[in-house]
Amino acid sequence: MKRIFLLGYPVSHSISPAMQNAALHDLGIDWQYELLATPPNQLRDTVARLRDADCIGANITIPHKQAVMQFLDATSERARQIGAVNTLVKRDGKLIGDNTDVYGVLQTLVDEHVSVRGARVVVLGAGGAARGTVFALGEAGVASIAILNRTPAHAHTLADFTREQFPNVAVTVNNIKALNDAELIINTTSVGMTPHTNASPMPEGISFPRRAIAFDLVYRPLQTRFLKDAERAGAKTISGLGMLVHQGALSLKLWTGRDAPAQMMWNAASNALRTTECETRDA
Ligand code: ATR
Description:
Elements: E1 2-8, H1 16-26, E2 31-37, H2 43-49, E3 55-60, E4 74-75, H3 77-82, E5 87-91, E6 94-98, H4 101-111, E7 120-124, H5 128-139, E8 144-148, H6 152-165, E9 170-173, E10 184-187, E11 213-216, H7 225-232, E12 237-238, H8 241-256, H9 262-282
Parallel strand pairs: 1-2, 1-3, 4-6, 7-8, 7-10, 8-9, 10-11, 11-12
Antiparallel strand pairs: 3-5, 5-6
Helix pairs in contact: 1-8, 1-9, 4-5, 4-8, 8-9
This protein binds 2'-monophosphoadenosine-5'-diphosphate (ATR).
């Protein structure tokens, strides 16, 4: 049996297996997508496991999107530019890193009819997912990006990267005032992901600005505290489900060479989410 793995920590909450296995079945491909919980101190050994013949490739998620790069044989031009990898493809026995998060972000904005050209955007977080996000925003021609992050040093590193890649974008770090006139606020942190959490990634004591659109990359629960607060403020909200589906669809295309059935992946992901949310509530 050929396998595709998802490396992350924690990953037990992930609905990617339900979504990807449904898509593989739909394409008539007899491969299995499986979770591989990988604590940071086991990343090197787990990546070595991917070199076994049964492995076709992998997805990489929190917190390994940057750390994994040092263990690969090569990276695509795009992943190298972004400095983060969420997809591994095996070519001639070599592990190649790629990034489908940028496509996921851009395609979700297209689906939601949100045009960000010339927009003022706030990005919450400065990890691997934030890197893909600012890259997508830069490519889409935003006017400014304000990066807000718990650890200022990480935010400054991401700001330097953004200025280097997109000299025309105005970049600030931990500038809370940027929330006042932001048109789009994107949560790229993992805050909100833990079941039953009531945590928000917004700076403490700041309520969601009504005129901004809230986009959460966290998809579980579907209605995070961040999105609930935004909705209560009267703002438009975008859940992380579209992002999950689109990045997964492009990953699947990289592994199989075939167009992914995105609509059925959306249905499978929604069903899995509904089932697991019921299980979590009933637990
Ligand atoms: P990924 O590759 O998926 O982006 P990551 O690189 O570990 O994962 O990044 C996680 C992001 O979530 C970081 O911005 C992290 O903030 P720090 O740079 O301060 O670590 C943010 N994050 C995680 N847990 C958080 C928490 N409890 N409160 C605030 N920010 C948090």
